[in-house]
Amino acid sequence: MAGEIRTTKKVFVIGIGAGNPDYVTIQAVNALNQVDVFFILDKGQGKSDLIRIRKEICERYIQVPAYRWVEVPDPVRDTLTESYKADVESWRKKRAAIYRSLIVDEMKDGECGAFLVWGDPSLYDGTLEILARILAEGPKVFEYEVIPGISSMQALAARHRIALNRIGEAIHITTGRKLTEGFPNNVDNVVVFLDADMNLRSVPEDLDIYWGAYLGTDDEVLVSGKLKELLTDIEQIRKARKAEKGWIMDTYLLRRATPGEKP
After folding, report:
1. Are 103 and 36 in contact (CB under 8 A)?
2. What is the domain count for the chain?
3. In terms of domains, do 172 and 192 share one?
4. For residue 166, what are the CA distances in angstroms to 4, 146, 162, 189?
5. Structural domain includes residue 2
6. End-to-end Cα separation, the chain, in angstroms
7. pLDDT tens-digit series, residues 195-244
8. For residue 5, pLDDT beyond 80
9. Which domain holds residue 164?
10. Strand arrangement, sheet containing 10-15
11. Cα separations (Å) of 168 from 9, 173, 189, 208?
C-alpha cells in the first residue's frame, strides 16, 4: 500500500489464473505492484512457457518495474515409490527448505516477495501448506497473504459456456489418480484435474465430457460431447500437443447425461 512502512517480510501467494493474462484480478494486480522480489521454481526447459507467462503478466500489470526475479530449480518428485502421499510429503519437504532459504536469504527486512501460482492457490497447489509448515517450524520470519485466482475449473466452464452443475445437483472435484477408483456414486458432475495418465479411460463411457487444454491461451483446445465417441480423439490430441509443446495442462467435466440433453 502507498505510504505503508513495513518492518517484517511479507509474502504474497498470488493466483494468476489459468494461462490468460486477462484472468488476473484487480486484487492480484494491486498485490503485484507491491512486490520487490518474485520467486520462480524452474521446472526445466520443457516448461519454460510457464515462466514466460508469469513474466509477461508482471510486465503487463506492474507500473514501476523495480522488482527482481529469483529462479531456482524445482526439486524432482520421486514417483517410483509405492506411496503417493509419501512421495508428495518428501517433495514438499524439499520445497519447504528452498522456500525458507529464498525468504531468509533473498529478501531484506521490510521487503515483499511473491509466489505466482497457476490458477488458484487453494486448489491442488502445495504453496500454502509449505508456507504454513515453515512458520510452524519457527521462528516466524515472515507473514503471508493469499490472493485468489481464476482456476482452470472456472475457465473450463466459461469457455464451454456451461454451469458446472445443474439444478439440485452437486459437483465432485477430484484427480485422475482418484478416478481409477471408479466414478463417484450419487454424483452427476465430476471435475477432474491432474490426469496425466489418461485415467479417463477407466470411467463408464455413457457420460458426457467437457474437456479443455491450455485454457484461455492461444493454444487452447476444447472438446465436448459423448465420452464414448471422443475418448480416442482426446487421447490423440493430448499426445500430439504434449509432444509439440513439451507439456500439457488439461481439465475436464464428466456429467451423467440427461435424456434429451445435448452436451
Report:
1. no
2. 2
3. yes
4. 46, 30, 9, 8
5. no
6. 47
7. 989 999 988 878 999 999 999 889 999 999 999 999 999 999 999 999 99
8. no
9. 152-256
10. 68-73, 37-42, 112-117, 10-15, 143-147
11. 46, 17, 11, 18
- Give φ, ψ of 73 to 5 degrees: -65, 140
Sign (positive/negative) of CA torsion 187, 191, 196, 201?
Answer: positive
220's grid cell? 487452447
Helix (H) or strand (E) holding 41: strand 37-42
Q: Spell out the residues 6+ positions from residue 191 whose beta carbon is closer than 8 angstroms to its own.
A: 153, 156, 164, 171, 172, 173, 174, 251, 252, 253, 254
Q: 147-205 pLDDT, tens per residue?
A: 999 999 999 999 999 999 998 999 999 999 898 888 888 899 999 998 989 999 988 87
Indicate the residue among 90, 116, 147 that finishes a domain.
147
Residue 207 near residue 257, CB atoms below 8 Å? yes
Residue 200 grid coordinates? 479417463
User: Is residue 14 helix, strand or coil?
Assistant: strand
C-beta pairs of 181-184 under 8 Å, 24+ apart in sequence = 183/207, 183/254
Pair 198, 106 in one domain: no
Q: Which helix (H) or strand (E) holds 255?
A: strand 250-256
pTM of the model: 0.88
Determine how β-strand 207-213 pairs with β-strand 221-226: antiparallel
CA gap 194, 126 in Å, rounded: 14
> CA-to-CA distance for 195 and 218, rounded, in angstroms?
22
Give the span between the Cα atoms of 219 and 244, in whole angstroms. 11
Quick one: cell of 43?
521446472
